[in-house]
């Protein structure tokens, strides 16, 4: 049932530093930059400068949230997070995607702050949409959001919720998942990446089902692939299935048996018989291949999970990236393609590039940079907010 929401009345006062962040256009204000907090239960609040003048409206994460405020609107006029605002901003997010994604059956519909819907993420897979909330103001409006999504997303018949990411722990939000609408249609969905048809389980699989941020990179890697290929950290086979259309043989490796099962089923679904899906630790597999005399590949994909999620984990993460890329470079035959990815925001493009340089030096290989890619345009970053440009996917050729 939808409720009416009134505009924010509670006020949160910023420190001078908090104000300068808002003035610089930053969408996030951390608790350390709040001078006077609103009542603990408030979820949408007015934001005031140190002298008490209202400068905007924000979603408040509560007294325990390190990320206290997510800006919803700027200026002195209070804004309500109600049906009208949600419908407007969801429709605008869809309209922005119509040109490039209108012909696709899967893409990210809403990418949080970058789509002016802070803390809300929505992915579409065929007739299903999956929403994720990272903040309690959006949590409290999920029923409303589900209704609006069914109205505005073309072909949408089901809405799933995946509020089970660890980032929710920071705001003390419960983890949960389930079907909000269309449960009778089940939680499996199929969608396309180029020519490839992929099946996901919206509730059981990782993220919201697939890694939609990598779809364009899967397709591009498939265009450049050749010979014998290896996809490390293959998940459902997004890269491997694309490579298999040009490569003679592909080995896809993931340590998660469920993901490998899904990759195998996807290969069969697409009648690709040159794909070998193995359950293994990618570090062990690369080490083993590297130790085998005469073993080589023409295409290798390295797409590990975010090793550097926590602060201070960056050095260990860098060592792990270095080992993986070094072994891949050693295993590549002359002319071979390396697709190297990192989805850790802490691994900046500069650090990532330096790590690859070191790997090339240690492997004694000269390496061409073909393309420095990131997430697809349905996952836009925000200028001035480097954390939002988390994904690197570099295409390199070994001489
Ligand atoms: N390449 C995929 C996404 C990979 S996500 C795509 O583009 O769709 C990261 C994957 O790494 C997960 O499926 C996880 O199960 C797997 N993984 C994590 N640690 C691993 C390890 N040490 N060896 C092999 N796979 C691992």
Characterization of this structure:
The chain is an alpha/beta fold. The chain has 3 domains: 11-74, Archaeosine Trna-guanine Transglycosylase, Chain: A, domain 4 (Roll), CATH 2.30.130; 83-187, Transcription Regulator spoIIAA, CATH 3.30.750.80; 211-398, Vaccinia Virus protein VP39 (Rossmann fold, 3-Layer(aba) Sandwich), CATH 3.40.50.150. It contains 10 helices and 20 strands. It has helices at residues 16-23, 83-101, 136-139, 142-152, 215-224, 238-243, 257-269, 282-291, 314-331, 349-363; strands at 11-14, 28-30, 34-36, 44-48, 54-60, 67-74, 106-111, 120-125, 128-133, 158-163, 176-181, 188-193, 196-201, 228-232, 249-254, 275-279, 297-302, 332-342, 367-373, 392-398. The strands form 4 sheets. It has a 7-stranded mixed beta sheet with strand order 16-15-14-17-18-20-19, sandwiched between helices. A 6-stranded mixed beta sheet has the order 2-6-5-4-1-3. It has a 5-stranded mixed beta sheet with strand order 7-8-9-10-11. Helix 2 packs across helix 4, helix 8 (282-291) runs parallel beside helix 9 (314-331) and helix 9 (314-331) packs across helix 10. The protein is globular and about 70 Å long. The mean pLDDT is 95. It binds S-adenosyl-L-homocysteine.
